[in-house]
Design goal:
alpha/beta; 6-stranded parallel sheet; 19% helix
């Protein structure tokens, strides 16, 4: 079910969170909503964390290679200045931002902006991936997407890391992660 708030008038702030595991289509959905806002004539900015340079340093790019130009920032506190004259603020890879993102997003919505975020809700161990859980708590609209499990072909909710790294953040694609259903997911214990 699509939870896009098409019925809200302009200048009524809101927060939309698109979440799920790797390869579930989060960025694709964010780009779809951004394009619709542009078609509606709304002033928009697209932001991503500077460390996400898998496909491009200056664009948000989905795994399907759909893309839109964006601004890469190193911390959440940089977003309000970029969003000053915009009606819609789109933020990709929310899980890579610090916890300040929660206050930044809340302030933007309180000032009348539509804020749309996409991000992983769980890390590779199946644990909540901050700040996305906090964003889910304050969002008016939540869309949870699922991939297809690489093992069973069922609905996948988890991101299985297939490398030996135990760092919480490892940016990668199919060489690092696979989508997994609950019964196929095997979180790796952290080394002491």
């Amino acid at each position: 079910m699509n939870q896009e708030p098409w019925f809200l008038p302009r200048h009524v702030g809101s927060i939309e969170v698109i979440c799920g595991g790797m390869f579930s289509g989060k960025t694709e959905e964010l780009l779809r909503r951004a394009r619709r806002a542009l078609i509606a004539g709304q002033k928009l900015i697209l932001v991503k964390p500077v460390q996400d340079n898998r496909y491009s340093e200056e664009a948000v790019v989905s795994h399907d290679k759909n893309r839109m130009e964006s601004h890469a920032v190193s911390k959440a506190s940089q977003i309000p200045l970029l969003a000053r004259d915009k009606e819609v603020v789109c933020i990709d890879e929310a899980q890579f931002f610090d916890l300040d993102l929660v206050d930044v997003v809340n302030d933007l919505a309180n000032s009348g902006k539509r804020v749309i975020l996409a991000g992983l809700d769980m890390d590779y161990e199946g644990k909540p991936f901050e700040p996305v859980p906090q964003l889910l708590a304050i969002a008016e609209y939540i869309t949870k997407l699922h991939a297809i499990c690489s093992q069973s072909g069922l609905m996948a909710n988890f991101s299985q890391r297939v490398t030996e790294s135990t760092e919480r953040i490892v940016i990668g694609e199919s060489e690092v992660y696979e989508p997994r259903a609950r019964h196929c997911f095997q979180p790796k214990p952290k080394s002491s």
